[in-house]
TrEMBL record:
Lyase is among the record's keywords: yes
Gene3D superfamilies documented for this protein: 2-enoyl-CoA Hydratase, Chain A, domain 1, Lyase 2-enoyl-coa Hydratase, Chain A, domain 2
Designated name of the protein: Enoyl-CoA hydratase/carnithine racemase
Gene Ontology MF terms in the entry: lyase activity
Keyword annotations from UniProtKB, A to Z: Lyase
Family according to the record: Belongs to the enoyl-CoA hydratase/isomerase family.
InterPro entries: ClpP/crotonase-like_dom_sf, Enoyl-CoA_hydra/iso, Enoyl-CoA_hydra_C
Keyword Lyase part of the UniProt annotation: yes
Amino acid sequence: MGEIKVSVEGFIATIMVSRPEKLNAFDIDMLKALAAACDDVEANGAVRVAILTGEGKAFSAGGDVKAWSDMAANEFGHAWVRFGHRVFDRLATLRMPVIAALNGHALGGGLELAAAADIRIAESQIRIGLPETSLGMVPGWSGTQRLTKRFGAQIVRRMVLGGEMFSAEEARGYGLVDAVVETGTVLAAAREYAARIAARGPAALEIAKLMIASANGEDNGSAVEALGSILVAKTGDLKEGVAAFAGKRTAEFKGEW
């Protein structure tokens, strides 16, 4: 049985995919556990940055073939693909910056998982790719969507259509990862970068992350509504509106920002 382990030290949360005997491949229970972990980290007001990593020699081999290969088409599309998509979107939209510490290979859904992070640091021995078409399927957890928006269509074409896999250094050259470090050092490097992020204003980090996502065409609607809601929540008008509702009277708005 695999699980998602969460630990918090100071301002930094670490989310570890822990199914090393299966190269941290996901099944339905793992997806549910990741969603719950995201909720826990989001709710912890002390956390300013999160690190995402894998246990053992792999970051993640993606989806466990045994978990979905016997599903009927409708179940596969909804219970597996759409659910996994929602979970990875949940990770991508955490209020705090997320650093993916790639301790091992990130393939298929594993790369889609890494792409949901804001920063990716990779150990030099890893390889990344999207091999789904070799199984007669397509990337389903935003491999053709988020990856294209973040890294560009051509590099995604090469991985999806041509089956190309890239070394850590090649991936860095293409912008798929942001830094490459020696084997065995990625968690230390991620913690160092996380401390750098955590030293900055947490409100500014959250709002800047939303603004960047909006500019990049990622979930524009929710980003705009979140920014607007944060702004309105700080106004005197909202306080007056709530007080008037509670007092069963007509609100007297003053346009106070």
